[in-house]
Amino acid sequence: MDYGSVPDWVVAIAAALAAWQGIKSLSAWRNEEAGRRRMELAEIALSEFYEARDIFKWVRSPARADEDDEPQPTQSGHDIYSPILRRLAEDGDFFGRMRARRYRVHALLGAGAVEPYDIISGVHGDVTQAAKMLIQTRQGAQGPSDRRRSAQWEDTVWDDAEGEDEINARIEMAVRKAEAVFRPQIDMNEVGIPRPKPPVSR
Question: Maximum CA pair distance of the chain?
Fold first, then answer.
C-alpha cells in the first residue's frame, strides 16, 4: 500500500465534507429565509383582514357617518347612497394593496390561501353594485318585484347590527379563513419551530 497517498485522501474527504456542510448550511438558510418571509407576509395579511372588517363596518353604518351623510326621508337616492361609494373610494388604496398582496400570498402559500381574498372582493363588489343600483332606481314608481330587489340592495349597503346580516356573515367567514391560513405561519419562527408560549403568571 502506498501510504504516501493517504494525505491526499484525507484532503479529498475533508473537502467533500466541507462542501456537504456548505450545501446543508445554504439549504438551512434558505428554509429560514422562506419561513421569515411567510411569517412577515402572514402578519401583514391577517392585520389587513381585521382592518377590512372595520372599514366595512364604517362604510355600511349610517350611525358612524358624517352629519352630511345621514339619510333623510326627503333626500334623493344619490344623496342617501353616494356617501357609501365615497367611503369605499376613500379606502380604495387600502383595497388595492390588499388585492395586490393576494398574488404574493398565492405564490408563497398556495392557491388555497387566497380564498379569504376572494370573499372580501365579492363583498366589496356587491356593496358597490348595490349602492349604484339604489342610486339609479331610487326615482320613479316601483312595482312589487322592484321593491323586493331594492330591499335586497338595502340589506347589502346597510349594516344590520342587531339582526342577521349576510354581508357581515361573509366578512366574518373571510376573517376566520384568513386566521386559519395565516395564524399557523405567524406562530412559527424562522426555522419552522413553534414559538414557545409565554409562561403563565401566577
Answer: 108
Q: Determine the Cα–Cα distance for residues 65 and 84; give it in Å rounded to an integer.
A: 9
User: Which phi and psi (to 5°) does residue 189 adopt?
Assistant: -90, -175
* Residue 7 placed within a domain: no
Residue 201 within a domain: no
Q: What letters, b where the CB count within 10 A reaches 16 and e where it falls short, cover 30-65?
A: eeeeebeebbebbeebbebbeebbebbeebbeeeeb
Rounded-to-integer distance, Cα 201 and Cα 80, Å: 52
Q: Is residue 19 part of a domain?
A: no
**How many domains does the chain divide into?**
1
Residue given cell 376573517 in the structure block: 175
- pLDDT tens digits for range 104-131: 999 989 999 999 999 999 999 999 999 9
User: What pLDDT, on a 0 to 100 scale, did the predictor assign at position 94?
Assistant: 97
The x, y and z cell numbers of residue 175, run together, are: 376573517
The residue segments making up the domain with residue 119 are: 38-186
**Whole-structure pTM over 0.90, yes or no?**
no
